[in-house]
Amino acid sequence: MKFSQLAVKTNKNAKSYESKNATLLIKAGFIDQVMAGVYTFLPLGTRVLFNIERIVREEMDEIGTEIFMPAIVPKELWETTGRLHTVDVLMKTVGANDASLKKNDAEYVLNSTHEEVVTPLGKKFNRSYKDLPFAFYQIQTKFRNEPRAKSGILRCREFRMKDMYSFHVSEEDLKLYYEKAKIVYAKVFERLGLGKDTLIVLASGGDFTPDYSHEFQTRLDTGEDTVFYSKKLNIAYNKEIAPSKTPETTTDETVLPKKDVQGVGLIGVEKLAKFLDIPVEKTTKTMLYKTDNGRLIAAAVRGDYKINEYKLLKIVKANSIELADHETVRKITGAEIGYAGILNLPESVELIMDDSTRGRINFETGANRTDYHTINVNFDRDIKTPSKFYDIKIAKPGDLEPQTQEPYEVFAASEVGNIFPLNTKFSKAFDYTVTDEKGKLKPVYMGCYGIGTSRLMGVIAEKFADDKGLVWPEAVAPYMLHLISLGETTKRAAEIYDAVIQSGISILWDDRDETAGTKFTDYDLIGIPYRLVVSPKTEESIEIKKRTEEKTSLITLEELIARFST
Amino acid sequence: MKFSQLAVKTNKNAKSYESKNATLLIKAGFIDQVMAGVYTFLPLGTRVLFNIERIVREEMDEIGTEIFMPAIVPKELWETTGRLHTVDVLMKTVGANDASLKKNDAEYVLNSTHEEVVTPLGKKFNRSYKDLPFAFYQIQTKFRNEPRAKSGILRCREFRMKDMYSFHVSEEDLKLYYEKAKIVYAKVFERLGLGKDTLIVLASGGDFTPDYSHEFQTRLDTGEDTVFYSKKLNIAYNKEIAPSKTPETTTDETVLPKKDVQGVGLIGVEKLAKFLDIPVEKTTKTMLYKTDNGRLIAAAVRGDYKINEYKLLKIVKANSIELADHETVRKITGAEIGYAGILNLPESVELIMDDSTRGRINFETGANRTDYHTINVNFDRDIKTPSKFYDIKIAKPGDLEPQTQEPYEVFAASEVGNIFPLNTKFSKAFDYTVTDEKGKLKPVYMGCYGIGTSRLMGVIAEKFADDKGLVWPEAVAPYMLHLISLGETTKRAAEIYDAVIQSGISILWDDRDETAGTKFTDYDLIGIPYRLVVSPKTEESIEIKKRTEEKTSLITLEELIARFST
Questions:
Q1: pLDDT for A249-266, tens place per residue?
Q2: Strand A225-230 and strand A284-291: pairing?
Q3: Of B158, B287, B314, B324, which has the fewest Cβ atoms less than 10 A away?
């Protein structure tokens, strides 16, 4: 491709966006923002996106069959699973004007995911145990009604995705396949150049499974996720679910008399600790919850932690929990919201205390009295030491992995894929069963496997960029070579360009009438793996330099072609 | 691919649809209907679709640069051109439920075409004459709010399309490029196997240009368009715009006295002719129109023709015309709608008569009197012969091409592509100008170039199918070879299958435990170019047969690979 044909210009002085990938990709002319969370992929960006999708496709072909499902579908499909009313990013379509509404006033769901399409599809063709297992995948555009979309192409209102769905006669068979999918996923990230920095991370299984789901997380300083990694166990957890233990501390403090202190309008533990002149670690956060089966729970963590509702839910063994309403809080504590504490709770309330609250002397708790806090609280004197402390906190750096009692390695990461055991959630909704060997009906087990291909482009952009611009791994680079012709070398450059293309090697030729400085700066901004320069000085040779190295060397055209031919 | 992995079944007894392509493609397991006008492409269908898109992409790369624009865009873009309120197939998106609306209650347009996106994009990067010409194309999913979608994948609510847009400094440059695009389009259809049966057909330029647009029409008995082809001129017209002359007839009839005949509630010329006991050719259809500049037009064609408003508009030299309302008709004719005629019209009405009304003796016309028709009307006795007869009819088979005076060849066809000179319609709306050599601002001329890739799959399916099923041209076939293994030949078949794949040749292996009959029937239904059979009888050889021939022959594995390796 000749640079002049791109019909797009770089702009290294373009404004910076909140997200690093948007800033980099817009400056280098890979994407154009149409609105927040909606982008046009420009010529270079389209090539990178399709390179990623080609690699994903090649690997998925090992374990699935490609199909192509529609974006708009009847609302009834989403009624069947009930998700029409619960998926809070779901959009639907309606006629855009009176003439259109007059022609057809139907509404369709614009899919954010395809379980509602693929499950009835699988059911239509595969009704015997002999037909299973099978897996369909597609690479397709998806839609989400994101409220604020400020992450560039990492979280969009419209985005590209590979989604695969597998169907099995048993949970065991699903698990076998699921492990195979992990291996294929690892291969994808390996080929994309992300292999060594991408981990399988345990995450919540949502309401599909009591087990975990699995995220593929790539280490990235600008990543929006936090991974807790136990080296000893070689297990990584998403922060949202990482089991954690607070390191124990010892103290030789003297036990002081318990006291109620008035403190009006102290929002947040930092402010409270400052007011009370105690470390934040001495404060206690107590929250009241209701379970779906009508129980009342008081959950308490050390003030510098947050309560993890995912963990709490598993402990209280309910289907769902929600924060108690104002009225209930008042009834239980006799105080307004914000002053709940662990002392003197009615017997109807189950108190669940996190291990972070253990072993403290003279700690604080809400006084269950509006505007009051109790300080110098001590176990066994003011409240019985609980028979068991739980883990109901969101983990923090410094926390220990409970089994090994060793601190986690904690790092920022960005999700590049996720896989989910759906089990029978969707097959049950669509009444999808298969007959077994004896003609008996058996439920179908499903798994789903996602890779956001446009998102991946953003992660790769952020991961490898340096202060001069983008740096593309060879497998996804828009072109392998970037030829810069300086001075009166158009004929020579054209000769090289033609010969390289003839050999099936991809090349971008900066044929513009621009200064050497502009061309070199643009090369770095764009980040193609190899820079070639021809100038009157290079004579019959070509100067070659890797984007990631400073060293240049000279090469002949023949050597160049030999080196990059596959 | 092994048949068992397709996870899809053929069903030769599936119900028939209104459209031939839907019937064929559903029976053979290429597509699945999710709702009217919305389909899933199943494994075989996905491969055909992507083969078509690969060919289209390769050819478009010769004259354009690929990008990928979003499906959802801000409504403001469509407000800018005013089309938000006029495109009657346009859809928009809204949150699908309360939770989604609460997160984001914005509405976005779901593009049915991309002029509103590509014009501001072109403008953003290309502001000098030096940057032009350029052309962007994409292969993407589009949406149309079709009321009834009964044409299978020929006219869908969601469909795949290649759309290209070119930008030029002058109309001349646009025309040069436009001719290049025609050649590239012809190449695409040639490669798809449609070359010899695909013509460039002149069609209306819409409100973009006084010139024609161009459709690529493939001869197809089941096609929904009618093409009028003049062999002598080598010009083809869409029926909607074909210039036409009615063959002259001579008659030695005696002129009869003019007479008004009462005929109540005679709807349609057939009924009228029967009632009056005259040939339909003796009836006259007179319609009253108003132009946008306030003129009144009476347009008359022979009863067996329809008035062509496209032609009429060009003749009356107005921006738009519309049928006169009831009130106006009553005022002009003194009668209810349905009885307008050419006699005794007020001077305020311009009478435009089609050449089909010429040369008749004793013809009929509405009496301009409710429930009455005048018969035995004759030129010069009852009304002056017009100084000029016009062509304001929709052409019919048998009509003459006016210049050559020779009958058209008329055939059914299906549109597989169209190209449009947009001229300055969109660049003006977006105020897109470029500076010329002297720094002066010049308007940008645009063209657009569409190929419906999913539609093409439907046309190809209908075009080549025989009574046994689909017949795919090699270039788009899902696989080149279809291997059927009969009896105890699994090991031999696996050996062939692996060797063929190893050689980069695409193959479908029917590895199912089914009868020979079922496998052969399915082969014909699916329509892969070559059938291979291994059975205990074929020993070391392979039986090979073309889908379109009856003759089988034996071939060795080595010969097979040599023959199909590229």
A1: 888 889 999 999 998 888
A2: unpaired
A3: B314
